[in-house]
What we know:
- With 130 residues, the protein is of the alpha/beta class.
- Strand 1, helix 1 and strand 2 (28-32) form a beta-alpha-beta unit.
- Helix 2 runs parallel beside helix 3 (61-69).
- The chain starts with a strand and ends with a strand.
- It has a 5-stranded parallel β-sheet with strand order 2-1-3-4-5, with helices on both faces.
- It has helices at 12-24, 35-44, 61-69, 101-112; strands at residues 4-8, 28-32, 49-53, 77-81, 93-96, 99-100, 126-127.
- It has one domain: Rossmann fold, CATH 3.40.50.2300.
Amino acid sequence: MDPTILVVDDDPHLREVIADALSDEGYSVQQAADGEYALAHIARATPDLVLSDVAMPRLSGVELAAHLTRRDDPVPIVLMSATAIAPPAGVAMFLRKPFGVDELLALVASTLGKSTRRNCTAAGAMLYGR
């Protein structure tokens, strides 16, 4: 079964672009508009990886990471932000926006311990976000 990734971002366009790139790579992708929606989703079905923006209303990516690391079965989380921050404890990786599709796929694959189908050295489209 393909790994499931939960993409959490309050920017619906960026969330959809990321979800499409991951789906094209063969991942099963779910989406949430903020940390609270993400927690509700995770309560129903635990993903293999959470890819979350940092700055979101209601519950930030950093707050979401804190919730996920306290679970009995912690979920790996990758935080994304246009602003450089020190990744909090329990965060698998940090991805600085803007980033390329190949960079995203390589990071997700390495976090999940699998190789990508794309050539990660090729130039890819840049993904922008706040």
